[in-house]
Design a protein that fits this description.
Elements: H1 2-22, H2 24-30, H3 35-64, H4 82-114, H5 118-130, H6 133-161, H7 166-176, E1 182-187, E2 191-199, E3 211-222, E4 229-234, H8 236-243, E5 255-258, E6 262-268, H9 270-276
Antiparallel strand pairs: 1-2, 1-6, 2-3, 3-4, 3-5
Keywords: Membrane, Transmembrane, Transmembrane helix
Transmembrane segments: 6-26, 38-65, 85-112
Length: 303
């Protein structure tokens, strides 16, 4: 029987670990935690989640089989604490598994709906052939609604995960296209890259290994004497042509930046820049927008 008494704490530790990795507001506390911190936070989460479960089980038992004392949890085998805590821990573990499965399912569906996998194409073709047009359109609307809900949950999870990190909040805003949608990255070498974030840093990666994927709109550098922005390469004409279908869509300009080599990052409003600064000159005499025809970004092999 002593082994039964030791089982609930172990089960609650596992349940807490699963809950910490499935609930967005909890995950950010354990994503970079070491072994001791992870164990402690998993234990706190597991025991904290088990308390209301134990209370509900106690009330259900009290109403279904009242005993002589309202504070006693009857146990026919003489273990007043082992059996109820074991039941509560198993229920908590079940809830944790359901939460983790739901989180993984939502993330999988979001990626599956956006992707162009063969499985999705086959399922769509099978549904189109097997059901009527009206039913197929209803299935399409249901799939779109599920995708919208999975998108909302994914964004909510990302916001909770990076809450308090101002740089990653800026990256997420650029990724989602909120605000201006562009970020200006200044590297340690004073190289400047202005663009749209297309890939967030991996949350579990150490800061020294964290990377950001950026689709550049402009590149340049800071003036050594005055730290004024000098734009030397403009990708926007080609990107605009690409979005209109006038250029080959397979050409890619994405840049992967090491986060620890970035001095600072700020939001960049391209409309404000074009209206106020594009024709200005740096105190050193060079124009801020220092572009010649040969500096326009061209696809590989273009003349």
């Amino acid at each position: 029987m002593s082994g039964i008494k030791l089982l609930p704490p172990f089960v609650l530790l596992v349940a807490g670990f699963l809950l910490c990795h499935s609930i967005p507001s909890w995950r950010r506390y354990v994503i970079r935690a070491n072994g001791q911190q992870l164990t402690l936070r998993s234990a706190i989460a597991g025991f904290g989640a088990a308390l209301p479960v134990f209370a509900v089980l106690y009330l259900l038992h009290a109403f279904s089989a009242p005993s002589a004392s309202p504070y006693a949890y009857p146990d026919t085998q003489g273990e007043p604490f082992g059996e109820p805590f074991l039941q509560a821990s198993l229920v908590t573990l079940t809830i944790a598994i359901i939460c983790l499965a739901f989180t993984k399912l939502v993330a999988w569906y979001y990626a599956f709906y956006l992707g162009q996998s063969r499985l999705r194409q086959r399922l769509a073709g099978f549904a189109r052939r097997s059901v009527g047009a009206s039913v197929y359109h209803r299935l399409q609307r249901a799939a779109q609604w599920c995708h919208w809900q999975s998108y909302r949950f994914t964004v909510h999870a990302m916001r909770k995960l990076i809450e308090g990190d101002h740089a990653e909040t800026l990256y997420l805003g650029s990724l989602l296209g909120t605000g201006s949608g562009l970020c200006m990255f200044v590297l340690d070498s004073r190289k400047v890259i202005i663009g749209n974030v297309t890939g967030m840093p991996e949350p579990s990666a150490p800061k020294e290994e964290s990377q950001i994927r950026v689709l550049p709109y402009f590149t340049g550098h800071l003036c050594e004497a005055h730290l004024q922005l000098h734009i030397t390469t403009d990708y926007t004409p080609y990107l605009d042509a690409q979005s209109r279908g006038e250029a080959h869509r397979d050409y890619a300009f994405d840049i992967v930046l090491a986060a620890h080599k970035t001095s600072y990052v700020r939001e960049f409003d391209i409309r404000f820049f074009r209206s106020r600064f594009i024709n200005h000159h740096c105190p050193c005499g060079h124009p801020v927008y220092n572009i010649t025809r040969s500096d326009q970004a061209q696809p590989p092999g273009a003349s």
